[in-house]
Amino acid sequence: MAGSTLHDGLTPLNSAPTQTSDDAHGYYVKGDKIVDTAAPTGPIADRWTTRRFENRLVNPANRRKLTVIIVGTGLAGAAAAATMGEAGYKVKSFCYQDSPRRAHSIAAQGGINAAKNYKEDGDSVFRLFYDTVKGGDYRSRESNVYRLAEVSTSIIDQCVAQGVPFARDYGGLLDNRSFGGVQVSRTFYARGQTGQQLLIGAYQAMERQVAAGTVESYTRHEMLELIVVDGVARGIIARDLVSGEIETHLADVVVLASGGYGNVFYLSTNAMNSNVTAAWRAHRKGAYMANPCYTQIHPTCIPVAGEYQSKLTLMSESLRNDGRIWVPKNREDCDKDPRDIPEEDRDYYLERIYPAFGNLVPRDIASRQAKNVCDEGRGVGPVVGDFRRGVYLDFADAIERLGEDAVREKYDNLFDMYERITGENPYQVPMRIYPAVHYVMGGLWVDYHLQSNIPGLFVTGEANFSDHGANRLGASALMQGLADGYFVLPNTIRDYLADGPFAPVDESHPAVVEARQDVEDRVQKLLSINGKRSADSFHKELGHIMWEYCGMERSEPGLRKAIDMIRELKAAFWSDLRVLGSAETINQSLEKAGRVADFIELGELMCIDALNRRESCGGHFRAESQTDDGEALRHDDEFAYVAAWEWGGEEGQPVLHKEDLIYTAVEMKQRSYK
Amino acid sequence: MKLTLKIWRQASPEAQGAIHTYDLDDVSEEMSFLEMLDVLNEQLNDAGEEPITFDHDCREGICGSCDLMIDGQAHGPEVTTSCQLHMRSFKDGQTITVEPWRSDAFPVLKDLSVDRSAFDRIIQAGGYISANTGSAPEANSVPAPREKAMRAFNVATCIGCGACVAACPNGSASLFLGAKITHLGELPQGQPERWSRVTAMVAQHDAEGFGGCTNIGECTAACPKEIPLDVISQLNKDYRMALKQGH
Amino acid sequence: MAASGLLFIGFVLGHMYGNLKAFAGEETFNNYAEHLREFGEPILPHEGFLWIARVGLLAALVVHVTCAVILARRAGRARTVKYVVKKNTHSSFSSHWMRWGGATLLLFIVWHLLNFSFGKVNVSNGETGDPDKNPYRLMVDNFDVWWLTAIYLVAMVALALHLHHGTFSSAQTLGLTGTARARRNARAAGLVIAIVVAGGFSLVPIGVLAGIID
Ligand SMILES: Cc1cc2nc3c(=O)[nH]c(=O)nc-3n(C[C@H](O)[C@H](O)[C@H](O)COP(=O)(O)OP(=O)(O)OC[C@H]3O[C@@H](n4cnc5c(N)ncnc54)[C@H](O)[C@@H]3O)c2cc1C
Ligand code: HEM
Ligand code: SF4
Ligand code: FES
Fold first, then answer.
1. Is A363 a catalytic residue?
2. Which helix (H) or strand (E) holds A255?
3. Is ligand 4 within 6 A of the CB of residue B62?
4. Residue A3 has what pLDDT?
5. How do the domains of chain A map onto residue ranges?
6. What pLDDT was estimated at residue B179?
7. Residue C86 near chain B (CB below 8 Å)
8. Are A212 and A148 spatial neighbours (Cβ–Cβ below 8 Å)?
9. What residue ranges define each of the domains in chain B, with the CATH number in brackets?
């Protein structure tokens, strides 16, 4: 930020974009622009305080009469359920796992950011805000991001009070580390299990409310439809995954905290059952899907070992601090024992291309270059499919420089995990890594209040699109989940609920009956196709298409091809699927089939969104938009907008609504790492 | 490698279950145990037999969903979760028996899947610190001694998988319970509710039908997170203190 | 359970110490037995201490056995469907044998009391005699019978196993084993107590068999 001036947030610093390219022509319909009607104006630092005050209150006596459905028990969902329960609302919480504590947030390793400035290293709310907007490549909404940075400090207070055992220094005070390439130490952590500890804190707070009778917990329940009555969200249809019963749950307001959809790529670091169904069902009922193509690909994952591979495991980014990344210079060396490849035959490609940042270039660059060298045929490890997908992450130098003990102390648990999965000892043989899908920045469109364009439907956590723009900083997803759940949603939803309780809806209302009937028909349909292929095999195929054409690098011809392939896949799915068993008991194949059906439709929309966005930005690279030396080139003049897609109907085309991104507190800049 | 799998199949909670035998060829050593079951399920689906139900989600050893009794050992022969167990731990030609957790407090739902909601109810009984959102003081206003914070963290890593119950000859959940008591009891924030917490949680544990602990130690050996037996000692001590104080 | 168990440990330690007096000869042993009866006089009546100890031990036994039965029944109800294959990998044999071992001990205790305290049957010469005057003779005569010695030794094996786990278990139950080190110590104490007590008790009949005591 050095040299840049602080802007107060009162005057626009950029003008609205005008798109001149139209790559997705023929695949979509142009819709009206959207303005986030809830976004506040005024000095950036005052916006949230003002809005919190402006939002109306709900009389405590009325709260008990207001039913809030929360789908999801990850950080975003569990935190909201606990907080809303404490406030006295009648909360119904849903998750598909057997316990709320198992939501995917549990897997987050690295840490959570907060602008506490405990290290007195120059951090501040403004700096966290600035870093997040910049990290998102200027594709996020500044008011939201500022609010996120602002409430970040309260999150840490709240978690500590709940007994989250963060790392501490010898004086017993909280410790911080620097994470994801930022220059300040603002990341709070609990060894490599931060997500677990935060989620258990939120889960326990939620279970406390279950005991208090304010929260009802529906585990092993999957939301399969949103109920919209007269244009307003009024409930959900869920399937009890044990008895198979289709249930109607009505409410005054519905919150989706159902997580991200990275599993559209089949292989990702997400939990196996993470899915898009809740969000996609809402999308089909009219909720806009924003920036669906924004995907984050993480460079340090354990590579695929074979065709049977079911998921990928992330290894902390911190490994790149000491490990050196290389591949052989010559293809012939790729199957040799790496220790026999002499120094002069190794290509430390990141150090070569980016001498200033070396192995510490941002996630997207490290990922893309790894893909490039593997595509050239210089990848290492087993041949999977047609070529080797892996590069070495070598600790030999670090071990020589620091000693094995020092390396062990730093990375012990990661090395153990690597050895458990691969059977190779990274103290002796270089690790192999490869990029994997890790997070999606895209999600359901929400306004400043986290309300979607369907009144009464709120969306929080990874399921919404709001805060990370085109790329997310490390340790910021946990921050967003908890910010949304503990502090933002409870404060914005009350303005909506202040008008309640709303006129009760009857289970016999045509809209409710129809939603329920749709779910039942769909379940029956999936069970009765009686084809030959498992849902999993379709999912795998979809994943291949998405990874190949809508992954790290996208191009116009590739995306067009992908759309065609996905359409064929969809037809095959609905004619050749085989789901055995019945709908009256646990039926994991049936659950899977429903999710894959939604992934297929989402995949198509992602490709259309990627096709339209003819710019390289944040986590993704568009072949048609690069600088002379092959680096990402952003087009603020054309694409400084949020692409919010409306469902166009089964036979129709999606409708694109644009929300312009106007900055008043930061100036847009191109990144450069060379 | 080739394997013979003897797997418990049970159509519903009420149905009578039985061991079914399956042969599986072409198992790779690099596969995880669950990926091996995926391959089997794909074959069953092709052959027109309903795939085997088993719980799993993260497949990273952290969510606690997976819960297989593999050849008489909870999570199999290594100190890890079922999902992080790899086939290189088995031999070509081996016969492997796979069963659900056996505990009356964890009724079988289908095949290898059981209902562990008893654990949630134990947490509901008192496994939390009451701190309403927004009421928290500045995080660094209460320092927590590093040693205690580390111990709290070490035992807070419990993933709630239930392997301790599955392995315990008494079917006791004392390791799970002790881990939570120790986690919250070690922290300054956990003190106000310390004694009421332990009596309430123990009462719920017993009401769920878990057995009593006789300190055999199979739990800690099966625990993928290596929760040590001393949490049970802590549990007993806190319980005694709580009774003394009239809770 | 732990409290009653610890009381028993104290008792068997003392009891064993007394038994070892057999090696010191007939007179010392009988004096010791007499001393137990006079202990605490004149504050306590004759045999007062012995009766307090007997009542205390009996109460502890009732508590101990009741707890054991409750625990066993709870364990039974906690897992009504058994595993087809179940391995116990990291626990001692003694910890698994507590119930059988306890039952063995209970039977033995009944027999033992009939044999030495109440019935005072001297199987070798059939006379009930006046062993109050000479418990030493009763003991030596009995251990001359091989099967009586065998019963006694089997019970000592059960006792050793019971103490091996019981000592550790009671420390754990009382919450004294909060660290890995304390746990190791408690396990070591279990081993030592098991060997000392069962070994100590066994020395007497072995001594008789070997003719050291006669
Ligand atoms: C391996 C890994 C490591 C990570 N590490 C970090 C890190 O160090 N720092 C960081 O900030 N972020 C990290 N992230 C990202 C972060 O963990 C997630 O973005 C975040 O936890 C998402 O939380 P959430 O509450 O939005 O959703 P989730 O935790 O994904 O929860 C989704 C919930 O929705 C429920 N659900 C979904 N669909 C339905 C349905 N149809 N019906 C009923 N229930 C449904 C699920 O049961 C679940 O309870 C990591 C992610 C991964 C994969
Ligand atoms: C000389 C006699 C005995 C001694 C010294 C003794 C000692 C002990 C001790 C110290 C314990 C551990 C208590 C705890 O962990 O809280 C124990 C446990 C046990 N005892 Fe005994 N006991 C004796 C007799 C008996 C008898 C007669 C029974 C008969 C049923 C019995 C059954 C058990 C059982 C089942 C346990 C297991 C419970 C546990 O491990 O906690 N014991 N005993
Ligand atoms: S204590 Fe260990 S075995 Fe028991 S539930 Fe927790 S992690 Fe699983
Ligand atoms: S599947 Fe999550 S721990 Fe095994």
1. yes
2. strand A253-256
3. yes
4. 46
5. 29-294+441-497, 298-438
6. 98
7. yes
8. no
9. 3-102 (3.10.20.30), 116-130+144-244 (1.10.1060.10)
